[in-house]
Task: structure prediction
Amino acid sequence: MVYRLTSRFPREEIYGLTAQARKSAVSIPSNIAEGAARTTAREFHHFLGVSAGSLAEVETQLELAAQLEYAERDAAIALQAQKVGKLLTGLRRSCAGRPDSI
Result:
C-alpha cells in the first residue's frame, strides 16, 4: 500500500520522502522476521520494538506527505497501520512474560 501511494509522490522526492517511507514500511516485517530468527524472547521483543518504531515512522511520513499535498490521507493505510500496531503490541506482551529462550 505504501509503495502504491508513494509512486504518486513528486519525482524530486524519489530519494527523500518516497525512499524513506518505503524503507520504513519494509523494515516492519523485516525486523519481525529477524527477531523471530533470534534465540531468545528478549531479542525477539527488542526487534518487535524496532518494528513498532518503523510503523510510527511510516505513519509520520504519510502525515507529512498529506500536509505537503503529495497525497490524500488514506483511510485504508491508516486502518492497516492500526491493525499492525495492535498485532505488534500483542506480540510484545506475549514475549514479555516468556522465559528467555524460544
Helices lie at 2-6, 17-36, 41-67, 75-96. Residues 41-67 form the longest helix (27 residues). The chain has one domain: 2-96.
